[in-house]
# Entry
Amino acid sequence: MNVLFAASECVPFVKTGGLGDVIGALPKALKEKDVNVSVILPKYEDLPFKYKQQMSFITNIDVPVGWRTQYCGIERITLEGIHYYFLDNEYYFKRYGSYGFFDDGERFAFFSRAVLEALPHLVDQPEIIHSHDWQTGPISVLLKAHYKKHPFYRDIQTVFTIHNLRYQGVYPKSVLSDLLDLSELYFHIDGLEFHGNVSYLKAGLAYSDRLTTVSPTYASEIQLPHYGEQLDGFLRKRNGDLQGIINGIDDMEYNPSTDPSLFFTYRDSEGKAENKLKLQESLSLTINKEIPIISMVTRMVEQKGMDLVLHVFHEIVKNGVQFILLGTGEERYEQAFKELAAQYPSNVSFQNYFDEALARKIYGGSDLFLMPSQFEPCGIGQLIALRYGTLPIVREIGGLKDTVIPVNEFTNEGYGFSFCHYNAHDMLYTIERAIWFYRFQSNKWNSLVEKAMKLDFSWDVSSEEYKKLYEELHTLQVHL
# Structure
C-alpha cells in the first residue's frame, strides 16, 4: 500500500515543534509494517545545505493558484528507503522560517495544489494522501473539486490529522476563488466557511475521508466547547470518522545509551547522576547532586502553562530546587524569566533560544520535567523525558493524561506526577510531592527512574493503528 504524507515540516529537514518529530518518525515505523510511505514538503530556504546537495531534480510543473499559475520544481532525496519530495518555488519559500508570513494563505494554497499536481511525477502512485495540520488542509477539498473525475486521481482516499486544533489557517472569504479556485458551493457551514471566513483546517476536517488526532483523550476533548476552538459541533458531526492515535517517539533517535549529545551516555540512574553534575556545571548552577532539578523545554506561550509557573515560582524555588528553562516565545514570559534567573543565579537557568543538543542534555541531567499545559493534544516532551529517566509532572489533559500514569505509593503503579485542575497551587502541591519522593524515598525514586527508562513509547503500537486505518479505507474503496 502506498501512502503519501503531506506536511509542512519533518525531521531532520525542518522542525518547529512536535509535528516535525511525527513526520520524521512515523513513516519509518510504517515502513517496518510494510506500508510504503513517501513524504512531500515545501523546499524552504533554511533547509540544511547537506540535504539540498543530495536532492535530485525530477521535473518542473506549472501549478494553478486561483487565476494565476506558478512555477514548481520537484526534487527528491531518499533516506533509509523513504522518498522525500520537495516542492520548490522561490517566491513562496526562499525566505528564512516556515510560517508567520503575511502571505501564508497563498503559500500553503500553492503548496496544497502543488502536492496534487506533483502526484503523477512521484515514484509511487499514492492510494492514500495523509495530510497534517492546517497548512495541508485544502488538499482534500481540492482533490474532490478539481481532480476526482480524472482516472489517475479517482480512487485516492484522504486522511487528515489534527496536531493542534488551535492553529486553523483562517483567511478572508476572497481566498476561496482567488487562491483555491473554488466556487461558492464550498462556502457553507459544513464546508470551508468559518465565521464568515475560510478555514484551511476546516477544509481538511470537512472533506477528508477519515480524521485522526494525536491522542484518544484529545479526540474526546475537542468535541467539547471548552477545547473545541469553535469547531466542537462540527467535530461531533464527524465523530464516527474521528480517531485518536497517540504519538510515539523514535526510540533509536532518543536513546540515552547512545545519544552523542549527552555529556555521558547511560543506562541507569547512576549514569544519569553524572550528567546532572555536568549540567549544573555547564549552566553555572550550584554543583550538588542532592539538589533536585526541575526543567522545562518548551515554547513559551500561554498554552504551555507559563502563567501557572510564574504565579508560584518563588514558592517552587523555596523548596530548595534548581529550575532550568530552555525555550523562546512571548516577550512577557521571556522577560519574566530573565528577571527570575537574575534574581536566583545559582538556582535558576533560563536559556532563551532553542538548541537540540542542549535540550538532550537537559532531559538527561534533570530529575523532574514540568508540563502544566492548559491543553496538550499529545505532547512529545514528557515522552522524551521518560526515555531519559526524568519523571514528568503534568496536568491531566489530552495526551499527557494518556501517557503519564501518576505514582501510587500504595499499589506501586505509575511513573510520574499529575494534577487535574488548571490551578497554580494544585501544581505546586504536586511539585512538592515529587520533591518529597526525591529527597526521602531515594530507593523508590531510583526504581521509578529505571522503570520510566524501560517504558515503550515507540511508534510500534501507534503505527499498527495507522496501518489498520489505511487498510480499512483501502478495503472500503475497493468495494465501492
